[in-house]
């Protein structure tokens, strides 16, 4: 394609909103872990392969820039009452979950941690009420639970019996699947992203072999009241919650991460915490690989890393089989970003260490703790791929606010090289600032087609249709043959793509595929620090302020093909 008509690259149009901090790679702020767990959270660096310990402030993995509209609710129960088995590793999960939240860009002031006696059934309900009250409509939320899960027969309002899954409260009551699903649906109406990580299980021990006598190496995180056990739930916990695939429904805004499949148990490790939680943090802290070269780390990429670590950890453990981390919802949602020092495929790269090293324990070592030394290093399932511009566009699209509806269409999806020009219609249910990105068939560059030097009026009204190009510019098919991808973005507040390194190229702007992560960060509203007003709940009641502080955007993808 001609320089003035750069259709040789795939383009994405987004409608984005909000602002977040700068693009610089940052380490999480140092500070004591929440709750009564370890004095200092430590883990292996995920790449050395030697199992060496480093404080989290020294981990090289990328931390998502903080956003004042990101919130976390952390719930951990280990000191159960009565006949319910205690989970002695759970206090360590407080620190682990806090670090996960920080690496996902949640400010310390927005992390609310509750534990043990605070989590009666009424206390758990109040926690969800308080979280909902803090939301303003464009927030991102992370909910974490570590404790027992269970299945039990409950009575419905009509008097019938039902097999239900539950999160088990401190005193043995069940926060049931139906109530949790109702709560999550209400939250999803006020949040642009909901990420729910459950380190618990609901089955009675399918993955265990004969357990050894004496101090256990691991404790199953499942409990059911005597006489109320059931095998197959009729409404499985969160597996159908807010996951509609209808465009604009918000279904793609939800990710449920379960430590185990519905027929497995998840495990608590004394002196360390939940096995799945340890693995998940290690992967966010640098062990996960950017397998598609997009610059982002999707939920599925983190899950694959966590599962590899769990599998390796249990290779030498007698009496247990690995449980399997599973994802419901949108596995392509970007949770964080790849560190810049990760070597691409074909480069020398150290294998990640297998298990998170234990945090310092406040009590004398036990036989169980002594048996949990890090295992031998494992080879990563795949080194990071070379930067890929098209994969970055897909990441941006998958991380849109799916409650918004944007469409991008063309009457001529196949173009004759040297003869045809392209025109398309963009319609957005919500108004905002429009950006059109393109990645061509070579996949080597990002082109910002709109706004451009000839046409800077990129605002679309709610429900209106924008026909592009306007009369002042055009896009012609000039090859090479292949498919070009366009991404349309519609955002409440402006985006500064110059912060991602785009340089003028005729009337348009261009940057190489190496900028994949920075393109994603700009789209997510992270090109500048958040204003003070974005942390003021009173200010956020003003609609104009609310739009300036929102990081949500709608997006649509369009592919056209150039032929001879």
Protein traits:
single chain, 564 residues, alpha+beta, Rossmann fold, 2 domains, 9-stranded mixed β-sheet, 6-stranded mixed β-sheet, 9 helices, 28 strands, 17% helix, 26% strand, disordered N terminus
Please describe what this structure looks like.
- The chain has nine helices and 28 strands.
- The chain has 564 residues and is of the alpha+beta class.
- It has two domains: 3-17 and 389-563, no CATH class; 42-339 and 343-370, 3-Layer(aba) Sandwich (Rossmann fold).
- Strands 1, 19, 21, 22, 23, 25, 26, 27 and 28 form a nine-stranded mixed β-sheet that branches.
- A hairpin with a 3-residue loop joins strand 13 and strand 14 (273-274).
- Helix 4 crosses helix 5 (299-313).
- It starts with 8 loop residues before the first strand and ends with a strand.
Helix and strand topology:
Blueprint: E1 9-16, E2 42-44, E3 53-55, E4 70-76, H1 90-103, E5 111-115, H2 121-134, E6 139-146, E7 149-155, E8 161-168, E9 174-176, H3 177-188, E10 191-199, E11 219-220, E12 254-258, E13 267-269, E14 273-274, H4 275-287, E15 296-298, H5 299-313, E16 326-329, E17 334-337, H6 367-370, H7 389-398, E18 406-410, E19 414-416, E20 424-428, E21 432-440, E22 445-450, E23 459-460, E24 465-468, E25 482-491, E26 503-505, E27 508-512, H8 516-523, H9 543-549, E28 553-563
